[in-house]
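Lab notes, practical 5.
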Amino acid sequence: MIDEYLADLDRRLHGCGKFKADLLDEARDGLHDAADAYRAGGRGDEDAERRAVADFGPAAVVARDYQAELGMLSGVRTLWKLVIGVPLMQASWDYARILTYGAWTNLPTSTPQWYRVVAHLTHGAVFVVPVIGLLALLGTRWLSRRLDAVRLARFCGVLLAVAVGVNLASVGLLIGSTGVVDASRLFLSVPCAVLMVAWVLLSLRLVVLARRSWGGYATIVA
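Output from the prediction step:
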């Protein structure tokens, strides 16, 4: 009875394999403890497991809460990557540019005023994105005692989507505008080019992870 229940729960859950396995292990331990208590009270094995499963709740209801927790855990992990990764990429690129290329005054082409505005906006986003991420992490922690798992997961997911969207938009805007002014600025040196590619890949990876989290939230609604 317990094994069939856990198999049903497993089929209903979608998300990170490690987090999912941890939740299922937690459910398994709780079910077996409850069944053992019923056995100690004189119930037979089948009846004890049946009562333990009934006490635990319908798989559809339990899966809803577990799915919310899976989405939140995945979202929190992505937020940490965003909070640390985005400013680290910016700092690494600037440091590489200083060491391998030098000052901006060494550029062979002039810089239009509109491009300076774009540069300021995209550089500002480097600070805005981790701030949004930190607010999401702190808010999730603070609200964990005030909201149920479903609403907490949605709160985390909304801020994650905003942060990832701002980062992707700023990277795309910077690359696009730089290509218009002088594409060679994207490849000031080999280290700068490598870091730029890494930054783009990180941004795309964050989008994929955010979409997976949102997939979990969609499963909750479904």
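Observations recorded by the TA: Confidence is low (pLDDT under 50) at residues 218-222. The chain has two domains: 2-57, 69-221.
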